[in-house]
Amino acid sequence: MSLYQLIFVVGQITIGVPALILLLVTLVGVPWVTKWSLRSLGTLTDRLNKVDFEARGGVVNETGLPKELLRVVREINLALNRVDAGFEKTERFFVNAAHELRTPLAIVQVRSDTLPQSEEKLHIQKSIKRLTAITNQLLDIERYRQNPPISKKIELRHLLSKVVADLAPFAISEGCEISFETDVSKVSLEGDEALDRAFSNLVRNAIQYGGGRGDIVVKVKADGSVLISDQGIGTAGDLHSRIFEPFYRVNPHGSGASLGLSMVNEIVEKHGGFIELKSSPDHGSVFAIRWRNALQIAGRG
Prior knowledge:
alpha+beta, Helix Hairpins, five-stranded mixed β-sheet, three-stranded antiparallel β-sheet, 7 helices, elongated
């Protein structure tokens, strides 16, 4: 090998080896160092994911975070505290407003009763009835959010049979037949008395929109699901998700308070369940309440 070739080979090695080392450091070392340097951001992200809107007063835990992130975390906590304060102020406003509305509504109701019988009187009384229903449901929603009832074991079969028995006279007066069916002898879950209100609201809704005809069936399935079906006017498919929104009404001229299904949905979700709706115009509706949490089921009915 000539001197020129030797110098060329040595030069290539001198340049190539450092370049190879630099490439390995870039491909392997830099990502590892970056990940190691930003590991505290992963911890912060995990803690942020635990902040729950329903759990008021929740803040990000500062323990163990590097001082570079503490200022950011403290500002986040201050923002969360401001949001909590704003929500509490808004909730107090609605509760106080609902309380204040009760007295004048009662006075207007009494005075409307003294008016001579006329079509105008019926319209006034219908409006007062709806305002009263909205006021009471606003109070119910806020009471439930702020002071959830004590949880206990609830036997669904017994609860639903009681709801059907209580609302049977109302169903008959509206021209409907109502029945209760079950595939199990006993089914229970952890819950509170708000479930009674939720199921009563769904059954009452089925009666009101049953069109004054057909059968209303409340059924407990073998897996603990609850089905409430009617043969009423039904609901178009594109409205299925919207009927659970507060103040949304399928019929703008209806007499409903338009808060009932929203409250039902909230109660069911708090009990680890969800609502499915199968419905179409003039073919009735089936509300199915299904549970994510395990139920205690015994025997067949």
